[in-house]
Structures are given as structure tokens and as C-alpha cells.
UniProtKB/TrEMBL annotation:
It comes from Streptomyces halobius. It comes from the Bacteria. Residues 21-318 form the Pyruvate phosphate dikinase AMP/ATP-binding domain. Residues 59-78 are annotated as: Disordered. This is Pyruvate,water dikinase. Residues 754-824 form the PEP-utilising enzyme mobile domain. Pfam families: PEP-utilizers, PPDK_N.
């Protein structure tokens, strides 16, 4: 056992090299103290004091406790068991006594207790917001309780997922705890020494709010936003905060949130310039741009935390309107940075097929390596340039018309290729992945794109006629001055996605009709539900697994990435959707927007008086144009059929490479390319090959972590809001709707949406479609008028505003807003609270 004094170390004894002893956060703070920066005094409960439970009892990697059969709940179930074990176990007496002594030496009283993991606040893994902090902790026993809970936060679902996503071994993760004298902040917030969005090294961003900094870092408020031009030493921009809530310490310990806006709600000018000076000095000390948490109290600025801002983007030239729209769409199509295996096993063949298909229409698009620009073997950015005409351009219209005459999109589902794709995918899924040889696993990965090739061919066959019909309908509506009806007129077509939605509603109806099932869903989190349902609802589980058999291959993020889990991989996502659907009856069905738009169209004076053949021609045009959405959505549904099986094969290969000592985790295989895995010979691979694979995976993994702060596609600032307008974007679906904000960051939060909420998200995919029936409106950071969110919003007749850039950052749960889908703006309603 380490000596007692190693359990607790004063901050001023630490430097930036002491990450293994004190974690990233504490090591940075110790470096600041030794550098003479204003840091509140304190000490660190070191990693030597952290006693990790026996992880052999908790199979976190596989997502189950020892002895439990594989099933839902996954990593979260095991993580929760570890957390419970840590929280319920007393702090060892030698550690407790060292903590009590250090607390008394600090003077007792209120302290801030912050987690400091060995994987936190590093250039390659910021870990921001993943671990717990406890403010205004008073008393020795409360301090020990807070220390235990900080240790336990290493095993929350979000922390486990974060480590998984970066290939960090759970067994090697360690945690320290920082204890500092509490600063009774008059103002607090964050400061970026370089603009994290544009990458401008001569711009400092300061966000501030009265009270403690939790309100800012947790996104509870619209903070005061100050932009400082450090080259000219002037404030280049300043927007007032809304002060929706103030977090302040309570006399008995802990904090409280109050909605009472202080009389003086703006950060004093002396504080601004003091923070600028401190920010410059901290950046100079660490040699790179910094993200600093600060507090201002009694005329003094304190540094509470600093971490590096990794891989800032360069400053792009001011884009035009079309480029902004293209970039917004790209951010929706590829919201997650592809791994090398994504590019080589799936995206490259898929994009290659699309490129070949498009070239036949007379258009040449940029090659894949110029679209996905790599640095160090990792995709660094996504660049899309204008296509150009090729030698097939003159003959393309003839081929387009010929194909349109040959293939009727109204009968496309009966094409034999549809059955062949489904049969081929079913055969892949039936393979014995665990018993397959290495060459058989490689061959399976190579078969997946062949199924996708059939989906591309289906689009090539059936899109031409519906595309011509779309053009004809657009011209017709332009002549009749009814172009605004276009989106609504195209809605109302059944797709595989709407079939999945109906199946979900049927399952939700079963839950609502059964009191026992309703109670089970109400009393358990989505991660707990599968285990809770096994003994009590076998019939419902059979129906649930039938749903997964039909629709479980749906991608939760984008169809371009093989590494992202599908519904079948994360059944808790679907259970979360069902929990939300079953919690309240479905909203009453109103008139379909497509039917209303059609009545308005044919009620137009020119069409009302037109001869019958002309009216019939317009109806035929409308019917054929409507098939576009079905062909587009359903072929995407079919394209991703092989993805879960391919991902399962990849992870099996990863496990074998871990056993051979090549990789640290099975997901490290994502950093390798398919051709690098296609090796012949005996198993395991030869030592030279093993060493080469390990070096490649390690190098690319580090590069990917370095690029974590760099956006794939540039984020172009939109015009600043004014008056009651809090956001501006692109109109996606017409209409006006009021409602409370509900920010949904991912599929794991689907259960949080309630009837009448305004759905706010970074992007959406078909996996999100069940939420639209409940939402009053949709506001999205990315996308455009033809993106998924806009199309589905028009289908359901709810307003949508796209490409807002900052919606998920500026809006908070509970705020009441008005979404104007006609003008593309979001207004904050008078008296709206943060909730």
C-alpha cells in the first residue's frame, strides 16, 4: 500500500507531468500555481487513493456483469454496477484521515470538489463534462461523500462511451480528485484564447454569467458573449446574456438555481481585460490555445481550470450563400469523422459506385481522395467542389428519357433486385461470425458493398422518371404561383421508415394497454428495460425482437459509416423511444398537409376551369413526383442492410487482434484499413506484421484524437440575432408553432421528448423519424431544405428551421420559443424560463 502522504498532495507540488498521479485537470492546475497564476488553493486526492473494484466481476467491454447473459443494457448495466459498488463502499480509513487532515489545513469551510481523470484535459482527450463536480461542499463527511461520487463518475455511461469512442482501455483509467477553496463568484464562465469556431488566433471569446460557472458550462443559460480582438486590444463584439438562471451557493452547502436576474448582469470591463491578460499568459505558458474556466470575485480573476483547445481549424475565406448551403448539408450527411475502416470497407466503394453512376448522367464529381482530405491517414476535412460536365453530357438527356420510359417508380418495390438484396443480407446475417476463419471474415466485409451496389442500381433505374416528374411539377407550380406547396404535395407516401414508425406505435399501444408493462417502462431507464422485461413480459419481448429483425439494421447516425452502431446493436435506443411513446397517448391526427395542399392546388382557378385531360395530366405528374421520396428513403433502408453484420465481423476481428497482442481494444481495429487486414498465412500474423499493424493503429488513433476539435466541414457564422429573434437559419418547412424546447443530443435521449415539444438537434436521420409525430416544430444546427429533418417535418405538417449552426448551444430545455418555418427564425417568447 502506498504511504499515506501519497494519498493527498498539495496543488503547489504538482506540474503538468504529474498526470499519472493527479489526473489531467489537477496536473494543469498545479502547473498554473507554480507559474504564479491566480488559482484557488487546494490539494489533490491522488490516483493512489482510488481503489478500483475488481473489474473481472464487471465485463464493461462486453457490457455485462460476470455471469449475465448478453443482452440489452450493455455497457451501461456493467458501469452502473461499478458505480454502485464505489458509492456504497466507505473511503478507506487511511485515505479518509489524509483527506480530513488536508481539509483542516486548508481552513475547512466551503470547497469545490472536481474529478481529475488520467485521461482528462489532455491534447488528445479533453474529456470535458464527462466526470462529476460538486460545488460548495461543507464538512468532512460531505467532502468524503463527494470524493466517492467523483470516483464513481469514472463509470457513468457517458464516461464509458467516451473512452470507448477513443479506444481508451477501461482497466487503465484512473481518477484523482481536486479539492479547492470555494470562490464565491460574482461572475463566472469560460474563455477561449482562440476562436474555436473560426480558428482565429487573434480573437478571444469570453462567455460570462452572474453567479457560479455551472450555469455556463452546463448550458443552462444564454451567456453574455464577448469577442475580443487581441491584436488591436479592443472589444469587437458583445451581446448581452439573458440571465435565465443564476447558480449560487447555499449557506448549508450545495448550490441552488434562481431565476432572479441580478441588477448588474454584465461582466465589468476591468474583469474583461484582466481575463484577456490572464488568457494570453496561460496560452503562452502552455504553448497552445487554451479553454479556461474562470471566476471573478471581489476584483480578482481566478483560474479554475484550463485545458488545451485541440487542432483549431484555419480561417476559411468568406463563403457564398450556395457554399454555406452545401456545407450545411455536408455536416448532416457526415456528422461523425469517418475511421480508416469506414473509408476503405464501406464509404469508398459506396461513393465510388455513386461517382460512376453520376458520371453516366454527364456529370463528373471530384474523386474521393479530394472530397475526404486526409492527414496522417485520418480524414481531416470534407471538401465539396462544384461538379463539371463530361463527354456524356450531350447524350445524357436521351438516356434519362429512355430510362424513365422503361422503369415505372410506382412498381419499383416488385423489382427482383429488392428481394435479392434482402435475401443476400439475410444470408450474411446467418453466418457464424465467431466460427469464421480470418479470410472468411475479410470476404464478408467485401460482400457488403455488393448489396449496396444493387441499391445504387435501383436508384439509377427508378429515379429518372420521378426526377422528370419533380421538374414538371416545379414548373407547373411556378406558373400557377403555388410553389410554396411543393413540400406538402410531395408528402404522404408510405416508406419503410413509415412502416417502422407504425410498428413502433403498435408496440407503444400494447404497453399503454397493459398496466404491468406500463409500470415497468415507467419505473426503469431505457438501459435497464431489457433486463426488467425478460422475466415479466416474454410475449412483448418476442414482438420487440420481431421488430428488430425487420428494422434493426437502421443506422443511428449516417449510412456512410460502418463503425456506428445500428438499432440492433443498441436495443436500449428503441426501448427509449417506446418509453417516450407509451408515456402519453399519441397526438390526435389532423388533416394531412399533403391532402390540404392538393385541395388548394386543384382549387386554383386555372385548374378548376381546365379541361379534364389537363387536370388528369397534373394529377399523374403529382403521383409520379411523390414516388421520389419513397425510392430515395427505401433504397437507403436497403443500402444499410449489411452494416450490422459487417460491424459484428469487424469487432470479432478486433477481438482476435487484441488476443494476439496487436491492439489494446477491439474497436482499435477501426483505425486500420481493409487492405491492411487482408493478409494470408497462419494465425496469428507474423511478428513483423503484428508490430506494423499496432504502429499504424496507434499513430492514426493519436492523429484522430488530435483532430477531435477540428470540424469536418467549416461552420460558417450566421447573422447575429436581434430583438426577440434568438436564432436565424434556413426555412425547411412552413408554418408557425410555439412550444417548450427539448434539446436531443442523440438517440439515447429520445425518451425525453414529449408531445408539443420543439425538437432541437444537431442533425437528424431516419432513426429520428418517430419523434416528429410528437414534436410541435423542429430546429436543427445543420441541413437544408432537402435534408431529412426538413422532408419529414413537411410530411407531418410542422414548421422546421434548418442550418441554425448554434441551436443546440443557445437553446436550453424548457425555454418557450416560437418557430417560424416561413422566415427561418426562432423567437424567444416573453417571460420564457430556462426550465
Amino acid at each position: 500500500m502506498p504511504p499515506t502522504e501519497d494519498h493527498v498532495v498539495p496543488l503547489d507540488r504538482l506540474t503538468r507531468t504529474d498526470v499519472g498521479l493527479a489526473g489531467g485537470k489537477a496536473a494543469c492546475l498545479g502547473e498554473l500555481v507554480r507559474g504564479g497564476f491566480p488559482v484557488p488553493p487546494g490539494f489533490v486526492v491522488t490516483t493512489a487513493a482510488y481503489r478500483q473494484p475488481d473489474l473481472s466481476r464487471y465485463d464493461v467491454t462486453e457490457g455485462r456483469t460476470a455471469g449475465e447473459t448478453t443482452g440489452g443494457g450493455g455497457t451501461t448495466t456493467a458501469g452502473e454496477a461499478v458505480r454502485t459498488a464505489i458509492i456504497e463502499a466507505p473511503v478507506p480509513e487511511d485515505v479518509a484521515e489524509a483527506v480530513r487532515t488536508a481539509y483542516r489545513d486548508l481552513g475547512g469551510g466551503p470547497v469545490a470538489v472536481r474529478s481529475s481523470a488520467t485521461t482528462e484535459d489532455l491534447p488528445e482527450a479533453a474529456f470535458a463534462g464527462q466526470l462529476d463536480t460538486f460545488l460548495n461542499v461543507i464538512g468532512e463527511q460531505s467532502l468524503l461523500d463527494a470524493v466517492r461520487r467523483c470516483w464513481a463518475s469514472l463509470w457513468t455511461a457517458r464516461a464509458i462511451d467516451y473512452r470507448d469512442s477513443r479506444g481508451i482501455d477501461h482497466g487503465r483509467a484512473r481518477i484523482a480528485v481536486v479539492v479547492q477553496r470555494m470562490v464565491r463568484a460574482e461572475f463566472a464562465g469560460v474563455a477561449f484564447t482562440s476562436d474555436p469556431v473560426t480558428g482565429d488566433r487573434h480573437t478571444m471569446i469570453i462567455d460570462a454569467n452572474p453567479g457560479l460557472g455551472e450555469a455556463v458550462v452546463s448550458g443552462l443559460v444564454t451567456a453574455e458573449h464577448i469577442v475580443v480582438d487581441t491584436r488591436r486590444s479592443r472589444v469587437a463584439g458583445r451581446s448581452a446574456g439573458r440571465g435565465e438562471v443564476v447558480v449560487r451557493p447555499r449557506a448549508e452547502g450545495g448550490t441552488e438555481r434562481v431565476a432572479e436576474r441580478p441588477v448588474e448582469a454584465a461582466l465589468p470591463t476591468p474583469a474583461v481585460w484582466r481575463l484577456v491578460r490572464i488568457g494570453r499568459d496561460v496560452e503562452r505558458h502552455f504553448g497552445r490555445p487554451q479553454d479556461i474556466e474562470w471566476a471573478w470575485a471581489e476584483g480578482t480573476a481566478y483560474v479554475l481550470q484550463t485545458r488545451p483547445v485541440t487542432a483549431l481549424p484555419g480561417q476559411p475565406a468568406e463563403p457564398g450563400r450556395v457554399q454555406r448551403m452545401m456545407d450545411a448539408m455536408l455536416r448532416e450527411v457526415v456528422p461523425v469523422r469517418p475511421y480508416p475502416i469506414d473509408m476503405t470497407a464501406w464509404a469508398s466503394p459506396l461513393v465510388g459506385l455513386v461517382e460512376k453512376t453520376v458520371r453516366a448522367t454527364g456529370i463528373t464529381v471530384q474523386p474521393l481522395d479530394r472530397m475526404f482530405v486526409e492527414e496522417g491517414g485520418v480524414v481531416a476535412r470534407l471538401e465539396l467542389t462544384w461538379p463539371r460536365l463530361n463527354r456524356h453530357a450531350l447524350s445524357a438527356p436521351v438516356r434519362l428519357v429512355r430510362g424513365a420510359r422503361r422503369y415505372d417508380p410506382g412498381r419499383w418495390r416488385s423489382d427482383p433486385m429488392v428481394d435479392a438484396m434482402q435475401r443476400h443480407a439475410h444470408e450474411l446475417r446467418a453466418r457464424d461470425i465467431g466460427g469464421a476463419s480470418w479470410p472468411e471474415l475479410v470476404a464478408l466485409l467485401q460482400e457488403g458493398p455488393r448489396i449496396a451496389a444493387a441499391g445504387i442500381e435501383l436508384r439509377l433505374r427508378y429515379i429518372p422518371r420521378t426526377a422528370l416528374a419533380l421538374g414538371g411539377l416545379y414548373v407547373t407550380l411556378t406558373v400557377l404561383r403555388r410553389r410554396r406547396l411543393m413540400g406538402a404535395l410531395l408528402s404522404g407516401v408510405d416508406t419503410f421508415t413509415t412502416d417502422a414508425n407504425h410498428a413502433l406505435e403498435d408496440l407503444a399501444a400494447i404497453i399503454r394497454a397493459d398496466p404491468g408493462l406500463s409500470a415497468t417502462f415507467a419505473d426503469h431507464t431505457p438501459d435497464e428495460l431489457l433486463a426488467a422485461l425478460r422475466p415479466s413480459a416474454p410475449s412483448f419481448l418476442a414482438d420487440f425482437h420481431t421488430f428488430l429483425d425487420h428494422y434493426g439494421h437502421r443506422d443511428t447516425t449516417t449510412p456512410l459509416l460502418i463503425t456506428q452502431p445500428a438499432w440492433r446493436d443498441r436495443p436500449e435506443v428503441i426501448l427509449g423511444i417506446l418509453k417516450g411513446l407509451a408515456a402519453q397517448p399519441p397526438p390526435p391526427a389532423g388533416p394531412h398537409p399533403g391532402e390540404q395542399a392538393e385541395q388548394e392546388l386543384f382549387g386554383h382557378p386555372l385548374l378548376r376551369r381546365a379541361p379534364a385531360p389537363l387536370r388528369t395530366a397534373v394529377r399523374t405528374l403529382l403521383r409520379q413526383a411523390r414516388w421520389f421520396q419513397q425510392v430515395r428513403d427505401d433504397t437507403r433502408f436497403l443500402l444499410v442492410l449489411p452494416l450490422p453484420t459487417m460491424r459484428q465481423a469487424l469487432l470479432e476481428m478486433g477481438r482476435r487482434l487484441v488476443a494476439a497482442g496487436v491492439l489494446d481494444t477491439d474497436q482499435d481495429i477501426f483505425h486500420l484499413r481493409l487492405n491492411e487486414l487482408d493478409f494470408a498465412g497462419t494465425w496469428p500474423p507474423e511478428p513483423e506484421r503484428r508490430a506494423d499493424l499496432r504502429e499504424r493503429a496507434t499513430r492514426r488513433k493519436a492523429k484522430r484524437a488530435e483532430l477531435a476539435g477540428t470540424p469536418l466541414v467549416p461552420t460558417h457564422p450566421v447573422s447575429e440575432p436581434s430583438g426577440d429573434v434568438v436564432l436565424r437559419g434556413t426555412p425547411g418547412s412552413a408554418g408557425l408553432a410555439d412550444g417548450p424546447v427539448r434539446v436531443i443530443h442523440g438517440t439515447e435521449e429520445f425518451a425525453n421528448l414529449r408531445n408539443g415539444d420543439v425538437l432541437v438537434a444537431t442533425y437528424t436521420s431516419p432513426a429520428w423519424t418517430p419523434l416528429f409525430r410528437r414534436a410541435a416544430a423542429v430546429v436543427v444546427d445543420t441541413g437544408g431544405v432537402v435534408s431529412h429533418a426538413a422532408i419529414v417535418a413537411r410530411e407531418y405538417g410542422i414548421p422546421a428551421v434548418m442550418a441554425t449552426v448554434h441551436a443546440t448551444a443557445r437553446l436550453t430545455d424548457g425555454q418557450r420559443v416560437r418557430v417560424d418555418g416561413d422566415d427561418g427564425v426562432v423567437r424567444l417568447l416573453p417571460g420564457a424560463d430556462a426550465g
